[in-house]
Every structure is written in structure tokens, then in C-alpha cells.
Amino acid sequence: xxxxxxxxxxxxxxxxxxxxxxxxxxxxxxxxxxxxxxxxxxxxxxxxxxxxxxxxxxxxxxxxxxxxxxxxxxxxxxxxxxxxxxxxxxxxxxxxxxxxxxxxxxxxxxxxxxxxxxxxxxxxxxxxxxxxxxxxxxxxxxxxxxxxxxxxxxxxxxxxxxxxxxxxxxxxxxxxxxxxxxxxxxxxxxxxxxxxxxxxxxxxxxxxxxxxxxxxxxxxxxxxxxxxxxxxxxxxxxxxxxxxxxxxxxxxxxxxxxxxxxxxxxxxxxxxxxxxxxxxxxxxxxxxxxxxxxxxxxxxxxxxxxxxxxxx
Length: 312
Prior knowledge:
Layout: H1 17-34, E1 48-53, H2 58-70, E2 74-79, H3 91-99, E3 105-110, H4 115-122, E4 126-132, H5 138-152, E5 159-163, H6 170-181, E6 185-189, E7 205-206, H7 210-216, E8 219-222, H8 238-245, H9 249-253, E9 260-262, H10 275-278, H11 285-304
Parallel strand pairs: 1-2, 1-3, 3-4, 5-6, 5-8, 6-7, 8-9
Helix pairs in contact: 1-11, 2-11, 5-6, 5-11
Pathway: Pyrimidine metabolism; UMP biosynthesis via de novo pathway; (S)-dihydroorotate from bicarbonate: step 2/3
Binding site for carbamoyl phosphate: 59-60, 109, 137, 140, 265-266
Catalytic activity: carbamoyl phosphate + L-aspartate = N-carbamoyl-L-aspartate + phosphate + H(+)
């Protein structure tokens, strides 16, 4: 059996193109499973997974939890907002306490970039990064690329523009790495204040004009403006942002071709995209959600196959 080159999924930058293809092939199999009348398989029946969310996240947490239950894993949910972390316990102590319950795998979202890498060095469990600060969100990037492959047949050679708040987005960075590894061309589009300084150093084009970006691309991935990560104002008003960088149906219909519209969610309807775009047949937003479960099942399954059994 083919296996992943890594024991953890910490970020797209740590995995190979072959790893991504293996995850996609495995997800194809699980996608077929979750469309059956009996949606469970016993693949991870002896594996215990802890979901550690140090930041709120409804969709990612539910998607992971569903993936774990579809694979018949035992699941522990830990929300740090109401935990001993508030009482000053360190990350390693928290995780070691959880691991002493014989947990095999930790799915972690954390506000600090690199938290997963740090943890992987210090604890004896397989770590899946479910988002670390504004750094990486590898499973989101995998499900996005998987959704493009499903819709357009392949990712290689496709032109993808990521629109919006690139600066605060872990989704953008992971997506850029995944798309480049799979042979897509990537551009970003958004207000200059929301583009990171390093963006031109990682082989990504920058397009300031939304219409030009949409005429160039096959796929537009529309990001949410992350108001909760902004300590200063990065653009004058939401209305002005929408006028310059929001996509509505009239704009889509005026392009010389039909493009695919994606969104990692949650959508600010009427800001980055209007409802008639979100609900149109060009949008694959609900496919992304469904594919997220299959892709996360694939990641958990492939990582679990590398776990050594516990010594009792």
C-alpha cells in the first residue's frame, strides 16, 4: 500500500505532490462511502482522536468530527475556550494530559502560527493542523484543490485567482502551496493593504483589478474579510470593498467565459459575493463542504495507518 511521506499533516509546504495525489485517490474512495445508505466504515475502530480547538470554528470542527465518526474512530472534543488553558496551563501540559488517555491523533486549531509543528516535536501522537493563526490550513487547501479537480478534471494548467483578504488568511497560503504543487497558475487580487509583503516572492501573480483577474482565471476562490483578525482599518468601508472586490451575478454574466466560484466559508453574503452568485450553478461551495468530509477522512485514514500501536 502507498503511504504518506509524513507522520503529521502540519502544512501543505511539508508534503509532496505524490502525498496530495494519494490523499485525493483515497478521498475518491471515501466520497463513494459517504454517499451510501450506510455511511460508516470500521477503518479507524481502534484509533482515538482528540479534537483540540483553541479558537472557535464550527464548520472545520464539525467536518473533522463527522469524518472521524464515519471512520468509526473514538472521538474526544476539547474546547479550550472553557478549559484549564484559561487557568494558565501550557499547551504541552494540556496535550499530554489528553494523550495520557491513550489518544493516537490530535486535530488542533490554534491562534499561534507553528503551534502544530511545536507540538509534533514534543508529544507522541500524530498531529493534524486544523488551522494555525494566519499561517496554514492544510485540509481546507486539499479540499479546495480536490473540488477543482472534481469540477474541471485536473488542477494542472488551471488558472486560479484568490480574491480578498490574503494577509490574514491561512486558507490563502495553504491554497497557494497546494495549487502550485499540483501545477496550477495562481494570482491574488485584493486591496494592497490586504496583500502580504512577501507575496511576489512565492511565485504568485498580483492583479489589482477584479474584472481583469476574473477574465484571466478558470476558478475564483473568494475569501472572507476577516474582521476579527483586524486591529486597524485596512480599507475605508465594507461598501467600498464590495464595490471593488465583490462579485455579483451581473459581473459574472458579463465575462467572456463561465468561471467556477469557490468560497471556504463562512460567507459574508453581499460583501465578497452576492447571494445570487453563492447560490448559482457556477458556485461549488456546497461541493467543497461535502468534499471536506471525504478529504479529511482520507487524511485521518492515511495518517492512522502509520501509527504504531500503544505499548501497554
